[in-house]
Amino acid sequence: AQTVTQSQPEMSVQEAETVTLSCTYDTSESNYYLFWYKQPPSRQMILVIRQEAYKQQNATENRFSVNFQKAAKSFSLKISDSQLGDTAMYFCAFMKHGGARGGGATNKLIFGTGTLLAVQP
Amino acid sequence: NAGVTQTPKFQVLKTGQSMTLQCAQDMNHEYMSWYRQDPGMGLRLIHYSVGAGITDQGEVPNGYNVSRSTTEDFPLRLLSAAPSQTSVYFCASSRRQVNYGYTFGSGTRLTVV
Q1: Is residue A104 over pLDDT 50?
Q2: How far apart are CA B59 and CA A105, in angstroms?
Q3: Cα torsion for A22, A83, A48, B35, to the nearest 10°?
Q4: Which end of chain B is more exposed for a tag (fewer CB within 10 A), N or C?
Q5: A 86-105 near B (Cβ less than 8 A)
């Protein structure tokens, strides 16, 4: 079974600085997807960035980028130029590749326990 | 675009009562799922569906039922509420190409007393 571990329950960063959130996962699959979701105080789950395991290039979305180390099973999120609006809970998630209708656990998101990020003014 | 709509947003139930959490999406997504979020545990999958008429159990299905009679709707039924079901519930949907990620509803905070 796949597991996702976020070892930092809470983190704090000063506005305009850079912060990195850690995520490791355990799987025997070779093809899968990884995601970072943001949950602000509004409770809404917002997709921040995604990575396909077969792609070696690290994904980037504006100020958000990942460091994907497939051999180490590591998927960290870097937030550059942190803003007050980045204050939120951040969840790392894993999904096995696939999609055959009705076949296998190919559309299940497995979440880590989250990292609460506070951006300080 | 409404996206994924969950109702109600808040609910208080007494132990033993039943209720249905509603979830509807207007994006013609094939995949829909229900998660519960508890402090320190992240989100855990309750039930999921890969299309109308097809449902399956997730990680924590006990005490919950689902059905998927249409592509748009995926209600979650609590048969006999227990305090252990106090949680925040999220419905999510995705197109079949799941690498684009799931779209989540705004959640339902349920308290069972």
Answers
A1: no
A2: 11
A3: 80
A4: N
A5: 91, 95, 97, 99, 101-102
| CA distance linking residue A97 with residue B85, whole number of Å | 31
Chosen for mutation from B44, B45, B99, B108 (greatest number of chain A CBs closer than 10 Å) is B99
Q: SS3 breakdown of chain B: % helix, strand, coil, rounded to 5?
A: 5, 50, 40
User: Which residues are within 8 A (CB) of A119 and not within 5 positions of it... i.e. 6 or more apart?
Assistant: A12, A13, A14, A15, A82, A83, A84, A85, A86, A87
Cross-chain CB nearest to B98 (options A37, A43, A107)? A107
- State both tokens at A119: 């951006």
pLDDT-based confidence at residue A98 (cuts at 50, 70, 90): low
Higher pLDDT pick, B107 / B40: B107
